[in-house]
Fold:
Amino acid sequence: MQINKLLLFLLLFSGAVYGQDYPNEFTEIEGWNIDGEKQFYGPDNLYDYINGASDFYMGYDFQDLWVVDYKNDKNRLLTLELYRHATPLLAFGIYSEERPSGAKVRPIGAQGFMESGAIFFLAGDYYVKIYNGRPEVSDSNFVVFSERVANKICTECSLPDEFKVFPDEGKIELSERYIPENFMGISGFNGVSTVDYKLNGETFKLFVFKADDASCRSLMKKYFERLKYKKKLKERIYYLDDPYLGKVAIGYRAGVLYGMLDAKTPEELSVVLNNLDSGF
Structure:
């Protein structure tokens, strides 16, 4: 009986897969076969695989991870890591945090890059990492394998819909970010999308937050209280002086907060905010 209990414990807490089904779409990847054990990790044991980084991934609502080796007919090995998050936006958040600032992006999935013998890319609610083995697979075959994995997730992958509302003019390439919590130093202002811009001699940041309207109104109330702003909330853009952030433009409409930070004269860039507002 004691042995049976021990075996049950080991099965439940081991990284190896027991009682979990590997996503069917990845069982067949042209030219490659699964080699060895498939490993599964959830929120309770991700620490066993990535140690101290696990808390960081939890901040982006990590769901599960599969780690699987694939081998081709020349005995070349690639290791696939499939990190799944609750939404495409959260998957983007962790991907963009780990993407180097000078990365040369590739059209793999929604977006990807190659770094130090590995390929990293975003596809739907997956953040995918693929590591080359020894001896190495050629770069061209490595990319083809990555593209085949991405196509198993989405055939027309794109960045999360939240970024489609941002205007194109003046947008700084690869500046999209997801802020998981306490944006602008406001408690509960969690899950904000931002993009950096350079326009009319100004460098600034646009942001968008979508939620239920009660949450939006509550956050605006908190912000007004911080600034001791007494007027009644209306659907409009407010140009305010923040003692911590300087000039702030923040707009409210039912279910949406949006605005501009870091601009010296946000009023002169009102056309940009109007373009952003028209995207909702």
